[in-house]
Amino acid sequence: MAVGIVILNYNDWENSSRLVEELETFPLFSYIVIVDNASTDDSLSHLSALQNERVKLLCAKENQGYGAGNNLGLRFLFENGMCHAFLANPDTSFTEEYFPAVLSLFQREREAGLVSGVMQDGIGLQKTAWKLHGFFLSLLASGPLSRRVFSSYLFYKKAYLKQKPYVQVDCLHGSCLCFSKESFEKSGGFDEDFFLYEEENVIAQRMKKVGFKVFLCTAVSYLHQDSGSTGKSIKSLVKREKIRQASERLYYSKYLSIRGGQKLLVYIFQTIILLETLLYEAYSAKKKQSR
């Protein structure tokens, strides 16, 4: 079974190089593909030096976002004979047993199209898996406060995620995913209309539409630094929130088919969240200056 992995880099050659060196110690991978997403720093010179028979460097002509960059790498792998392909953010870390455990689910579950292990972020802020929802619950899931208040409706119970070595879920965290060649080709991979954020919900919708199931392998886990790569390239919380909200609006429109009244509700809800983000960023900056 030929297996490859994609690392999408944007101005984060230090983390990408570290991850490549880690993955090279695992004989499982036929190819380790680095996709440089039109970095504006000196990533290319550093990453070019890593190339060998197993490590390949692909250069995107322009930065079209997470989905487009990962699609470029995944297509390369499947066009070059891979049966399965992982993608991993540069700010992730793995043990060798992680990858065979995840791959084993494709043999156990014939309808499996997308699989990952448990994501550990070190501080417990991010969910490793969650449910797909209609418009109203999706809107509640987008707000920091409403997400906490209504968490019992929005997310899986911990007991469900821990009951078996693997469980079926709707959505997986996008810092590490594994596709089969068939599921990638039939689903079309990531929707390249999305630059950043909402990719997990979108790929879950696409898998569901073409009849594939999504599984979380609870027997293994990997480490992910919360917003490690994104935080390097987009330092402003407000700018990140604006990008996130634009992707949310696109998701609601394209995949949940919202209309006039719902669009007004989105505008009001997002405006409140953006104001909260502005105040928090201003408070954090003032607090930092006073030290």
TrEMBL record:
Residues 5-186 form the Glycosyltransferase 2-like domain. InterPro entries: Glyco_trans_2-like, Nucleotide-diphossugar_trans. SUPFAM superfamilies: Nucleotide-diphospho-sugar transferases. It comes from the Bacteria. This is Glycosyltransferase 2-like domain-containing protein. It comes from Oribacterium parvum ACB1.
